[in-house]
C-alpha cells in the first residue's frame, strides 16, 4: 500500500498491518499514533524510534515469530513471508556456511537460551557469521539490548516493504 492509504487506515487496520513487522503493542501504538506521516522516511523514522529501547518482556514476546537464520520460515503467516524474503537475500548458502551457521545458532542458543536474531537484509552469510561470533562474547544484558535493536531494524525494513 502507499503512504496515504496507510495514513488513512482505521486504527485497528493500521495495527493489523504493523503487527507482522514487530509483535509489540507499545511499538505498534507508537507508530499508529504518529500518523499521518508526511513522507515514507518520516514513517520509517517513527518505526525506528517508537518504543526504543524495547523491554526484556517485549523482546522475548517478539522473538517467537522469527525462524533461525538459515532455516525456512514455517507456515503461511505474514511474518513467515517477511522472514522468507529477508532470508532469501542470503542466497543459496553453500554447505560449509550452512554448517557453520547451524553450529553457530546452536552455540548461541546454548549460551543465551534463545534463537540468534539478526537483521539479515543487506548482510552476507559471512557477515552474519561474523556478527554471531562477535555477539557470543556479549554479556546477557548487552546481548539483549542488541537483540532489541535488531528487532526494531527488522520492523522498520518490513514497514518499508509494506509502504513500497
Ligand atoms: N533469526 C533471525 O535472525 N531471523 C530473521 N532475521 C531477519 O532479518 N528476518 C528473520 O526472520
TrEMBL record:
It catalyses: 5-hydroxy-2-oxo-4-ureido-2,5-dihydro-1H-imidazole-5-carboxylate + H(+) = (S)-allantoin + CO2. Residues 7-160 form the Oxo-4-hydroxy-4-carboxy-5-ureidoimidazoline decarboxylase domain. Keywords: Decarboxylase, Lyase, Purine metabolism. GO terms for biological process: purine nucleobase metabolic process; urate catabolic process. InterPro entries: OHCU_decarboxylase, OHCU_decarboxylase-2, OHCU_decarboxylase_sf. Pathway: Purine metabolism; urate degradation; (S)-allantoin from urate: step 3/3. SUPFAM superfamilies: UraD-Like. Its EC number is 4.1.1.97. It is an enzyme of class 4 (lyase). Pfam families: OHCU_decarbox (PF09349). It comes from the Bacteria. Residues 68-93 are annotated as: Disordered. The keyword Lyase applies. This is 2-oxo-4-hydroxy-4-carboxy-5-ureidoimidazoline decarboxylase. It comes from Brevibacterium aurantiacum. The lineage of its organism: Bacteria, Bacillati, Actinomycetota, Actinomycetes, Micrococcales. The gene is uraD.
Amino acid at each position: 500500500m502507499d503512504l496515504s492509504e496507510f495514513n488513512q487506515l482505521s486504527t485497528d487496520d493500521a495495527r493489523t498491518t504493523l503487527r507482522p513487522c514487530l509483535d509489540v503493542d507499545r511499538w505498534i501504538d507508537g507508530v499508529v499514533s504518529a500518523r499521518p506521516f508526511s513522507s515514507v522516511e518520516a514513517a520509517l523514522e517513527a518505526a525506528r524510534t517508537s518504543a526504543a529501547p524495547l523491554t526484556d518482556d517485549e523482546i522475548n514476546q517478539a522473538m517467537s515469530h522469527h525462524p533461525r537464520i538459515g532455516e525456512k520460515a514455517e507456515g503461511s503467516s505474514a511474518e513467515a513471508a517477511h522472514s522468507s524474503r529477508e532470508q532469501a537475500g542470503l542466497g543459496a548458502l553453500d554447505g560449509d556456511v550452512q554448517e557453520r551457521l547451524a553450529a553457530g545458532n546452536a552455540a548461541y542458543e546454548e549460551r543465551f537460551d534463545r534463537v540468534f536474531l539478526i537483521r539479515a537484509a543487506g548482510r552476507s552469510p559471512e557477515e552474519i557469521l561474523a556478527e554471531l561470533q562477535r555477539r557470543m562474547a556479549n554479556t546477557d544484558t548487552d546481548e539483549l539490548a542488541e537483540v532489541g535493536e535488531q528487532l526494531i531494524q527488522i520492523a522498520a525494513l518490513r514497514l518499508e516493504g509494506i509502504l513500497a
